[in-house]
Amino acid sequence: MRNRIRLYALAEVEALARPGRRPSPWLASPPKTRTTPAKMAARRTDGQEAAYVFRLLDQGLSLRAIVTRAHVPPHRVRELHREWARSLEHGSPPDPHALGDTAELTELAATAQALFESRD
Questions:
Q1: Contact, 84 vs 57, CB < 8 A?
Q2: pTM value?
Q3: Which of 67, 95, 110, 111 is the most exposed place for a label (fewest CB within 10 A)?
Q4: Containing H/E element for 115?
């Protein structure tokens, strides 16, 4: 206080004068924002997400613990767990929309063939 005049830091005045707005560019250091795990998860690429989940799986964490720690949806963690459990050398996983193994497909084809032959 000088000559009965109170002096305040410019950053404090800015914060009080315009709540919710960014500080002026002439301030030396804008207020630091804390990066939350949810914000970090939103910025991760698919590869980064997979690498992070794989590391957690290597540590022995449960799928439920991985969802809460990594902020990854449960269906995605299950997909990544299946990928992690199989060797990367085995190629891409089977199509989830496929009917099943070759025995099921052979049986289905035989049934369809019998239906078409009975129409003739």
A1: yes
A2: 0.45
A3: 95
A4: helix 102-119
| Euclidean distance between CA atoms 103 and 48, whole angstroms | 38
The C-alpha angle with vertex 76 and arms to 75 and 77, in degrees rounded to 5, equals 90
- Determine contact, residues 53/77, Cβ cutoff 8 Å: yes
Q: What is the DSSP string of 56-101?
A: HHHTT--HHHHHHHHT--HHHHHHHHHHHHS-GGG-SPPPTTS--S
Cα 45 to Cα 116: distance, rounded to the nearest angstrom: 49
Domains in the chain: boundaries: 36-119
> Which tokens is 111 given?
């049934």
Over the stretch 108-119, which tens digit does the pLDDT of each residue have? 888 888 888 877
The tokens of 7 are what?
């002096």
